[in-house]
Write a structure and sequence with these properties.
It is a single chain. By secondary structure, the chain is of the alpha+beta class. It has one domain: Cytochrome P450 (Cytochrome p450, Orthogonal Bundle), CATH 1.10.630.10. The strands form three sheets. It has a six-stranded mixed beta sheet, with helices on one face. Strands 5-11-10 form a three-stranded antiparallel beta sheet. β7 and β8 form a beta hairpin. α7 packs antiparallel against α9, α10 crosses α11 and α11 packs across α13. Bound molecules: protoporphyrin IX containing FE. Protoporphyrin IX containing FE binds next to α13 and α17.
Length: 426
């Protein structure tokens, strides 16, 4: 067994506990993050041996880590596992908080107040199809600029980062320049605020609070502008829900908008950077897809969603009552961490899961989650991934990494994985 595994699987003698008699050994080292394209050996080991395992989170709280595909689907599809309960002040924590407890609970607030339907219609496939020509044009425009500047380019700074931010600004109806992008200063500030919101390691609480407050202040300016001149973006619908129906407070309006903006573009930056690296490391798959995009691009996008490990730590739930998951019993009040990225590499569901195969159709992946909190932005995400690859692959058929793959650097300390840069030549 490699040294890292021996270290990671150190265990301690548990308290006697009849309820958890099957598996009380605690696996040490969660969240096992090493960045990059490969699922960590610790997750692979758990998938083979203990699809539901006892862990301690970085805050010292005990929890269950679910890695098995079927077990993950079971937890996410079971209303007895609550997401809102993770904000409870005295409950167990998955990590040291990086944002106010309710910052990412906007969707639940919208469901509770009956406003979700109106707001989410902006993310429905028919609605986002309206943006498609513009999104295709944006992809071409960013590639033109990268090619004009000459090799080497950086697929993160030149393509993966500005692309989804501009799309999210358009969908929300935020102010941009004539090119559809926010100003350089706003791009920089948004990158910082979203990094803090998505940080996994402890940051200084004062910095966290200040960063979220600045993001809200920026959005308060946008809300004031939308009140004067509504337009037809998602923010206008949110503002109307607040002003016309009084459904929620101004604070909730700002938190919900901040959550949507950050989630909506930060996930795509990570994903597009990781997908680019995956395709550059599998040029035969990229080449096949580029030659037959109508047939292969849709399955290639789904396979990339399965293959790419965007998560670093999994999504959290609290059991509201005693529930059996796999071969363990989870007690009421316990924290359960669902490792979606591990589930999508479960060899029992996806044979040879570390192989990228553009035509794979084994099972539905869990990249967008499952059940009540299934990602409402999935259609917008798929559209962007499709447009980004449809523009990139045929345009630069000789695209390759400009540095050896081992020299790629990865973002550190975020809940999402991402390459820091992807230097390319063509
Ligand atoms: C590749 C891109 C994306 C991935 C991999 C992704 C993944 C996910 C996952 C796994 C969840 C479920 C979390 C849970 O169960 O606790 C989720 C929820 C969510 N996603 Fe996405 N997402 C992506 C893009 C987007 C976009 C573009 C938007 C917005 C426009 C968005 C908005 C949301 C929201 C608001 C939720 C919370 C839903 C709720 O609480 O019910 N996501 N996403």
């Amino acid at each position: 067994m490699p040294v890292t595994l021996r270290r990671a699987f150190r265990t301690y003698a548990p308290e006697p506990d009849a309820e958890h008699a099957i598996s009380t050994e605690t696996v040490v080292g969660y969240p096992f993050t090493s960045g990059g394209l490969e699922l960590e050996p610790e997750y692979k080991h758990l998938l083979r041996t203990r699809p539901v395992a006892r862990i301690t989170t970085p805050t010292g709280d005990p929890a269950w880590l679910v890695t098995g595909y079927e077990e993950c689907r079971a937890v996410l599809g079971d209303a007895r596992f609550s997401r809102s309960a993770i904000a409870a002040p005295a409950g167990p924590r998955q990590q040291i908080p990086s944002v106010p407890p309710n910052a990412f609970n906007g969707m639940e607030m919208l469901r509770r107040t009956g406003e979700a339907r109106a707001v989410l219609q902006h993310l429905r496939p028919r609605r986002i199809a309206i943006h498609r020509p513009w999104i295709e044009g944006l992809a071409e425009q960013l590639l033109d600029a990268m090619v004009r500047r000459g090799a080497p380019g950086d697929l993160v700074a030149d393509y993966a980062a500005p692309f989804p931010l501009a799309v999210m600004c358009r969908v929300l109806g935020l102010e941009t320049g004539r090119d559809g992008r926010p100003s350089y200063a706003d791009e920089e500030r948004l990158a910082y605020w979203s990094d803090v919101a998505f940080s996994m390691n402890s940051r200084d609480p004062t910095e966290i609070a200040a960063s979220w407050a600045e993001l809200r202040e920026y959005l308060a300016g946008e809300v004031a502008r939308v009140r004067r001149d509504p337009g037809d973006g998602m923010l206008a619908t949110l503002v109307a829900a607040r002003d016309d129906h009084g459904s929620f407070s101004e604070d909730e309006l700002l938190d919900t908008t901040a959550g949507l903006l950050v989630v909506g573009y930060k996930t795509l930056i990570s994903f597009l950077g990781l997908a680019a690296v995956a395709l550059l490391r599998h040029p035969e798959q990229a080449g096949r897809t580029a030659q037959d995009p109508v047939r292969l691009l849709p399955t290639a996008v789904e396979e990339l969603l399965r293959y790419v490990l965007i998560e670093n730590r999994g999504v959290a739930r609290i059991a509201t009552e005693r529930v059996r998951v796999g071969d363990v019993t989870v007690a009421a009040g316990e924290l359960v961490v669902v490792a979606l990225h591990a589930a999508d590499h479960d060899p029992g569901t996806f044979p040879d899961p570390g192989r990228l195969e553009a035509t794979r159709r084994d099972a539905e992946h869990l990249a967008f989650g499952h059940g009540e909190h299934f990602c409402p932005g999935s259609a917008l995400a798929r559209l962007q991934i499709h447009c980004a690859l449809a523009a990139l692959l045929p345009r630069l058929p000789a695209l390759r990494l400009a540095v050896p793959a081992e020299q790629l650097t990865w973002r550190d300390g975020l809940i999402l994985r991402a390459p820091a840069t992807v230097p390319v030549t063509w």
